[in-house]
Every structure is written in C-alpha cells, then in structure tokens.
# Entry
Amino acid sequence: MPVAIITGASKGLGRALAEALAARGWDLVLDARGAAALKEAAESVAGHGTRVEALAGDVTDAGHRTALVAAARRLGGVDLLVSNASALGAEPLVRLAELPLEGLRRALEVNVVAALGLVREALPLLRRAPAGAVVAVSSDAAAEAYGTWGGYGASKAALDQLAAVLAVEEPGLRVWAVDPGDMATELYAAAVPDDDAPRPAPAGVVPAFLRLLRERPASGRYAAPALLEGE
# Structure
C-alpha cells in the first residue's frame, strides 16, 4: 500500500485528508501537537482497515521529524508528504505594526523551516517511491495582500517558493503547493474569531487533493476551487 505522512492531522483539513486516503487504502503516519486529539483521529482513521502510526510532537523539533520518517519507513516508504501543520503568528491576527516578532518567527519555523526539514528527511524515500509527491498546503494570503494576514501570508509565500524550487531540483517528484480556499476550521476561527460567515467543511475540499493524486498534473501551485470544478 502507498504510505503518506500528514502533519497537522488531528483535525481540520489534515484529518479529513487522512480519512479520505485511508478509505482508499493508504497507510498513514499522522502528526499533531495534541496527543489526545491525535489519538482520537488515528483511531477513527484506522477504522478503514489500513495501518496508522500517530506520533504527537512539534514539527519544529528535528528529532520528531526524524521519527515521522522512520515510522513511514517501517510501513514501507514515503509516497506522499503533506505539510499541513500551520502557525498563524498571532491569535487573533493583528496588523504588522502590532505583530510580535516572536510570533512571526514561530510562523516561519512551523510553516517554512519545519516543512523543508521534513522534506529533506523524507527525500531519499520519496525519490525511491514509484510516484513520489509533496503537497505544501498554502493559502490565498500567500498571493494577496489582506490586512492582518501579513505574517501568516509571508510564511505561506515562502513555502510556495520552496515548493517551486523543490520541483525544479527534484524533477522526478510531483511538488504541489495547494491553496485550499476558505474553510470552517479551528485555525480560521482563531485567526478571525469575529467572522462567523459560513464556510465549507474541510472534507468538501479534499476531492481537490485526491484529483491531484489521481491525475498527477505538473508540479506547480493550484487552487482547490479550480480543481473542484467538474469533480
């Protein structure tokens, strides 16, 4: 069975994607900081009959990243790496004039440095996979200037650039930066707690990711709403 590593998999998009992949026969290595929520998610995902390894920890910890890849190796390798774990930099979001620099550093460490660190750790296994792929979960804030989204958006823009360069340097892989669009997640609620407008559930966005895996288009940046057209 193919094997995927998904970070930030205890809730939201990460969990929804894990459920969908498990239902299609994927073995999974799941990461999140909250041990209790991750355990509950892993038990649910394992109900599909595939093997699931759940490792609670912080992706900014090099030892934790090594453990994630080691777990995938025990399952047979790494066919897909999904960097979904994210930090906002401030909760709720604030203007750049008020953004704590420590918060910006945290967003960059989680969203960019840790994502690259995990890719580097997994590269030997990804290169050996028959159809190795990397998914970097991006945001429209990486490409558009929205007030208060500066720190988070800057980190996602950096992630997009890393994904683009990785695609050039590793032509044997597919490397996709994916903007999932607005979703009803705890992350969004923490970012903008006063915004209660209705948004799609993460499960509604998952078919966009499945389409990438099914059709394997060229490496690049994709927006989920466009991928969902015709699905």
